[in-house]
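Fold Annotation — chain and its backbone
Encoding — discrete vocabulary of local shapes
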Amino acid sequence: LVSPSHRLAGGNPENINNQCKTGQSIQLEISTPQREAFFSEFSLWTRASSKNETFQAYVSAVKEVLETRYK
């Protein structure tokens, strides 16, 4: 974590994450190997249709944290 005044703190108003209605968001940095693990076929054209159980588990975990923390 960085201080709120740090240039990487995510406070830039031009960042798309800061332009939502609530002004709150999260931005997850996911490594390429982790992203590859989310799909049975990791190409630009096949990713959308090849999401696997790892992807679903990750999405569920993120949703659970957000629903618990930000209700």
In short: Residues 16-69 form one domain.
